[in-house]
C-alpha cells in the first residue's frame, strides 16, 4: 500500500480532510485545514489536540510506508509533546521522518506547525511494518 492509498483508506483522515503534500524515502508531510467541527475550545476557536494527534500519527505512518519495500504499518507507540495551541483558522502541517529502521520496526520523529516559528507539537514514535516479500 502506498502512502496516498493509506491516507485515503482511513475514514478519520478523510473527515479531517488530510492532504499528502510531500513524500520521500522515509519522510512525509501531511496537512489539514482548520475546521470548526474539530474545535476543542469554542471560546478561543483552538483545534482539539486529538485532531493534531491524528495528523501526526497519520504522517508518521505515511513516512514509514515511504520506506522502500514497506507495505503495511501500525503504530506501536507514540509520544506527543504539545507546546502551544494552534492558531485558529490556520492550516496545520505535520512533517515526519524515519530516523532508524530495523527489520520490522521504524522509529519516527515528527513536528506539527501552523505557520508560526514555534512548533505546536513534537512526537516520537515506533511503528511496526511489513516489507514486501516478508512472511507474516
Would you kindly provide a brief summary of this structure?
The protein contains 3 helices and 8 strands; from the N terminus they run ααββββαββββ. By secondary structure, the protein is of the alpha+beta class. It has a single domain (3-131), classed as Thiol Ester Dehydrase, Chain A.
Keywords:
six-stranded antiparallel β-sheet; 44% strand; Thiol Ester Dehydrase, Chain A; alpha+beta; 8 strands; two-stranded antiparallel sheet; single chain; 3 helices; 136 residues; globular
Report on this model:
This protein has helices at residues 3-8, 11-15, 49-65, and strands at 19-24, 27-32, 39-41, 46-47, 70-82, 92-101, 105-113, 121-131. The chain has 136 residues and is α+β, with helices and mostly antiparallel strands. The protein has one domain (3-131): Hotdog Thioesterase (Thiol Ester Dehydrase, Chain A, Roll), CATH 3.10.129. The protein has a 6-stranded antiparallel sheet. A hairpin with a 3-residue loop joins strand 6 and strand 7 (105-113). One of its GO terms (cellular component) is cytosol. InterPro entries: HotDog_dom_sf (IPR029069), PAAI_dom (IPR003736), Thioestr_dom (IPR006683).
Amino acid at each position: 500500500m502506498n502512502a496516498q492509498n493509506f491516507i485515503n483508506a482511513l475514514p478519520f483522515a478523510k473527515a479531517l480532510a488530510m492532504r499528502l503534500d510531500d513524500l520521500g524515502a522515509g519522510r512525509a508531510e501531511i496537512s489539514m485545514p482548520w475546521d470548526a467541527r474539530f474545535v476543542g475550545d469554542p471560546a478561543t476557536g483552538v483545534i482539539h489536540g486529538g485532531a493534531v494527534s491524528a495528523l501526526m500519527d497519520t504522517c508518521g505512518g505515511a513516512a514509514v510506508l515511504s520506506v522502500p519495500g514497506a507495505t503495511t504499518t501500525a503504530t506501536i507507540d507514540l509520544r506527543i509533546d504539545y507546546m502551544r495551541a494552534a492558531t485558529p483558522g490556520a492550516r496545520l502541517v505535520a512533517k515526519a521522518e524515519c530516523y532508524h529502521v530495523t527489520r520490522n520496526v521504524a522509529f519516527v520523529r515528527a513536528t506539527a506547525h501552523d505557520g508560526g516559528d514555534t512548533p505546536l507539537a513534537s512526537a516520537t514514535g515506533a511503528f511496526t511494518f511489513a516489507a514486501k516479500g516478508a512472511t507474516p
